[in-house]
Model the fold of this input.
Amino acid sequence: MQEKINSNSLSHLNESGDAQMVDVSDKQKTRRQAIATGKIIMSAPTLTTIEAGNAPKGDVLGTAKIAGIMAAKQTANLIPLCHPLPIHKIEVEITPNYDLPGYEIKATVAIKAETGVEMEALTAVSITALTLYDMAKALEKSMEITEIRLLSKTGGKSGDYYGVEKSS
Amino acid sequence: MQEKINSNSLSHLNESGDAQMVDVSDKQKTRRQAIATGKIIMSAPTLTTIEAGNAPKGDVLGTAKIAGIMAAKQTANLIPLCHPLPIHKIEVEITPNYDLPGYEIKATVAIKAETGVEMEALTAVSITALTLYDMAKALEKSMEITEIRLLSKTGGKSGDYYGVEKSS
Amino acid sequence: MQEKINSNSLSHLNESGDAQMVDVSDKQKTRRQAIATGKIIMSAPTLTTIEAGNAPKGDVLGTAKIAGIMAAKQTANLIPLCHPLPIHKIEVEITPNYDLPGYEIKATVAIKAETGVEMEALTAVSITALTLYDMAKALEKSMEITEIRLLSKTGGKSGDYYGVEKSS
Amino acid sequence: MQEKINSNSLSHLNESGDAQMVDVSDKQKTRRQAIATGKIIMSAPTLTTIEAGNAPKGDVLGTAKIAGIMAAKQTANLIPLCHPLPIHKIEVEITPNYDLPGYEIKATVAIKAETGVEMEALTAVSITALTLYDMAKALEKSMEITEIRLLSKTGGKSGDYYGVEKSS
Amino acid sequence: MQEKINSNSLSHLNESGDAQMVDVSDKQKTRRQAIATGKIIMSAPTLTTIEAGNAPKGDVLGTAKIAGIMAAKQTANLIPLCHPLPIHKIEVEITPNYDLPGYEIKATVAIKAETGVEMEALTAVSITALTLYDMAKALEKSMEITEIRLLSKTGGKSGDYYGVEKSS
Amino acid sequence: MQEKINSNSLSHLNESGDAQMVDVSDKQKTRRQAIATGKIIMSAPTLTTIEAGNAPKGDVLGTAKIAGIMAAKQTANLIPLCHPLPIHKIEVEITPNYDLPGYEIKATVAIKAETGVEMEALTAVSITALTLYDMAKALEKSMEITEIRLLSKTGGKSGDYYGVEKSS
Done:
């Protein structure tokens, strides 16, 4: 973990403690990328059914990916103090993992802008997972969405950040 | 866990495997409620700073709660096959837990309608957690959103569902 | 003014003081209507130019009216604790008043639902006024939006409400 | 008031009088800021109750501020001919004024872009006021939103603008 | 064509010619369904590439279908005088037609409500077609979206409507 | 037709066939413009009634134009893999054509950005047409939206494109 702590306060609060959307108009436009990951854990039969159901038409995983991509574009409308950003790239990957059992989700978001896209990547992962839940909830309601975190963040003045890999 | 498996297929796919928003126009309008929970785990200093920073104005937790409530109303715009619903109640609670350390989040959503509000409750929890992440990410990027799941679902023909309590 | 004070607390806060979207699922579905009014004050030349510019194509007032109608449908996405509602009627009227000088705006919203549409009517008036401002701001930036208030509210258990007419 | 009248027509209408979103692609990207203000007038007991109710948790004013910030980001979706803009800063302040009695609202919006953010600041003030109305309307329906206007606008080719201070 | 002309005026205009969202609060809640169709015409090689590209993962047609379903839910936010409706069913079908060459699109929308869902079905078809255009436009920009029309409308007081089949 | 085929694959699919929003962060910011056209065909009496009804207030065509302009700004929220863009200009023209009979619609969209605005222009045309349909559907349900296509696209590395004029 190489994160430089560049602040010891909550940056969305001003000096009187009020929430605000902080000024980034003087920051440099640089290429910034963020990668977030997450998991959805389910029973083995649920995973098997999705994988089987997915085979002929691809609608389950395809729908979840599209939902994640579209949600990344809604981030600033969902997270109150996020800056609206003309995002330049969004990619969502969903990988079945029979050991969980469940799916591993990974979202990569990039932009050339004054501020980063961590929240966009994390939002894409979250909504992708929620969509998988929605599409399988008739089979199993006890699925769990878990380990949503930032894998890496590159570009920008505050330095690059790489999360510690966890042995799952 | 008292879930009645009322389907052995993925209900959002039609018989040819295509995604669709299923017809609920013949279902009964009954009062339905869903409760979802989740956690965000952070370092002890981050939790302490949020709690302290929160004291004078209440903006951190208040902002996260409002974000969760507003997101619940956006569920059908985020989850592709969810039905748009005139939701009747949304409540979000955030509780600090120094043992995690972090916050426990709980969302309760209710409606009198033809279909349930599980996805609305899960979405409220997810966006509340993401907003907490956003507001504290200058302090710590390694926070993790975890254990998002359905605690209970009542009302509706498919029967009530209660998730198993986990000893955290 | 016949308003029955049916509460002595802020209804959007629960007993611990937290914001919430209150439960209306047990309330009766009745026809409810709200009328809100407001004004935008400008210089006489600005009013004359809008009225003249409006003559051939009707785009200025027409655009402002459409903006107000569409905004009423966004109310629950703008006002955090408002219930999303399938609104049944929205009408916006804009009347030039050379004595102000400026425009008087009136919005009427109706629904058959568990809760009222005051906020929808007030939002329609506000966005109609803002759109008029936007369309005339190259002429005059000192326009003022003023006296936005609820004229009446009928239907629903808490009783009808009629605002006092002001001699403007 | 130092406004340079740089146009004698309604800029959102083309030469045939049709509404359009005017071309700003050739304009210079400069830092632009707009400040708007407004008021909500209520009875003294309503103000006292909000201030008291606000004390323990801060949810009333906090919620209204968040609503204003989020609404500023929706401006181009609400005002038909506004340009969508990746806003760089939004701040909303709410100050109780026992002489009104009521609240004074002030929104500051900034961006480095081809066009200004007056409408964003005015929209933030309007929705903040509407949210205050919504949260206190169980106490009093006769509150009035008033004096919404542009306090200043700086940056951009058309020159700076400062509204005349009114003695309230 | 069995359409009963139940009006000889433009129903979205009031008696003074102003646009409004008409009052439907007194209408009966009945089950209503609308089916709309449309086509996108392209060159044979483009069709072949999409069909081939679609084979392994299903993302092209799947993405277009999801876009159509989600757009149907946005209808009242896009068409100014449409009523917001809690839609009960949306299904989109896309069929390749080598004789066009291109795709035939069909959307079915149903609801139990006071007003119909023709615009929702037509919007679903339109956005599905636009998404197909978007996904293939690197191959061919001369694709054409055509013959978007209402195939049938059932339920509601104004009587059922069936469009005349065209021999294409 | 001067289109340079600069790709022989579906650019929204990655090498494994998954849908993605492609990276444009390295592309040059240049001024780009797209013009799209389309038609709505109706019976002669419907056209006559709209034109007559339109005379006093201009609300029918004005409303449809505003809908098209506002929809262009929603393009990235409707078309899943479109990049969100701070659009710089949108203009919609609607011309009655008694030979169709019906209306011809033309949308011009411009931006200085890393990617083009074809989808924005096509979306503006589509929603303008749908709004005309909505406003006249009480008169005639058999109207048809047709010949939506790209007339021209200029700016950007892939070269300019001009569609072939059709003799209608």
In short: DSSP finds four helices and five strands in chain D. Chain D touches chain C through 66 residues (CB under 8 Å). Chain D has one domain: 30-155.
